[in-house]
Design a protein that fits this description.
Elements lengths: L3 E9 L19 E5 L2 E9 H4 L1 H7 L3 H21 L3 E9 L2 H10 L1 H11 L2 E10 L1 H8 L5 H5 L9 H4 L4 H34 L4 E4 L5 H4 L4 E11 L3 H13 L4 E9 L21 E3 L1
Parallel strand pairs: 4-9
Antiparallel strand pairs: 1-3, 1-4, 2-3, 5-7, 5-8, 6-7
Helix pairs in contact: 6-9, 9-11
Length: about 290
């Protein structure tokens, strides 16, 4: 077994500009460019004790190790995105040596080059729209007053069922009003989300709609109505972000989150059906 292996972060066009000084990737090593077959692989040297097949499989079960590795991987991809349009590779894509990396570039050269041409000069922006229905209900709820709680209606005696704040009839009315407020707020937010998506799609060359995120997993407040990725030319990024912020500012029930610019993760097709491009953790050792 080699004492050192090659960790591959991304594929980029040839002539890659220098990366920032002090940039460190996975295992704390400096990423470098390896050009071959008209392409550039961005790789780093990693120890076989951690990244050979068996130890890597064990590490991938360690959530702390996995999170640290993912952050280092993402830092390199982010640095590349500032200077070029990279094709991100899967987390933990590992090769035996430089020659193995070169063979991989040769094997997928046609598809990789075509994808780089298609995505050149473009970045991915993520947009999430949330309905803050609880906020709408709090805003719509009238303030309680002593007269409202206990005073008799003008011109007649109040009934015990209407007068008691905790009565079944009063509770039912409050529940029905809360449901109505929530449904109205949700309808309003969904309309805003549809309008926002249609407007942003006009600035994008391609769109991917991802499943809404479960708040129990994401930890985000509100109901996720839109979870979309937009492929935007770099020169149009300012207008795209400005438009998203404008549309989100008009509806107090809606929260809009815009993230990016990212490498075009959502728009990179797998090379030769091998799934080497951006995705979840996957060990890949090439001979």
């Amino acid at each position: 077994m080699n004492a050192e292996l090659r960790y591959a972060y991304a594929v980029a066009p040839p002539g890659l500009p220098p990366l920032p000084e002090g940039l460190r990737g996975v295992a704390g090593t400096v990423p470098r460019a390896l050009e071959h077959a008209g392409l550039t692989a961005v790789v780093g040297t990693v120890p076989a004790d951690d990244f050979a097949e068996q130890p890597l499989r064990a590490h991938l079960e360690d959530l702390d190790w996995l999170a640290e590795t993912a952050r280092a991987h993402q830092a390199v991809v982010d640095a590349l995105t500032e200077v070029t349009t990279p094709l991100p590779l899967r987390l933990a894509t590992v090769h035996h040596d430089d020659d193995s990396v070169r063979r991989s570039l040769e094997a997928d050269r046609e598809e990789l080059a075509g994808t780089l041409d298609r995505l050149a000069g473009r970045v991915e922006w993520g947009v999430k729209v949330y309905a803050e229905t609880d906020r709408a209900q709090r805003r719509a709820a009238p303030a309680a007053s002593p007269s409202a709680a206990g005073a008799a209606p003008e011109g007649g005696a109040r009934s015990p069922a209407d007068a008691a704040p905790g009565s079944g009839r009063a509770y039912l009315r409050r529940r029905m009003r809360a449901v109505s407020d929530r449904e109205s707020a949700l309808d309003e937010a969904e309309n805003t989300g549809r309008t926002l998506h249609a407007a942003l799609a006009a600035y994008a060359e391609d769109v991917r709609l991802h499943p809404p995120q479960d708040p129990r997993l994401s930890g985000a407040s509100g109901q996720n109505l839109l979870n979309a990725a937009y492929l935007v030319p770099r020169e149009g990024a300012g207008r795209f972000v400005e438009r998203a912020e404008q549309l989100g500012a008009h509806d107090p029930v809606v929260r809009v989150e815009v993230t990016g610019p990212w490498a075009p993760y959502s728009f990179v097709a797998p090379a030769s059906g091998r799934g080497r491009h951006a995705g979840g953790a996957a060990a890949e050792a090439s001979s």
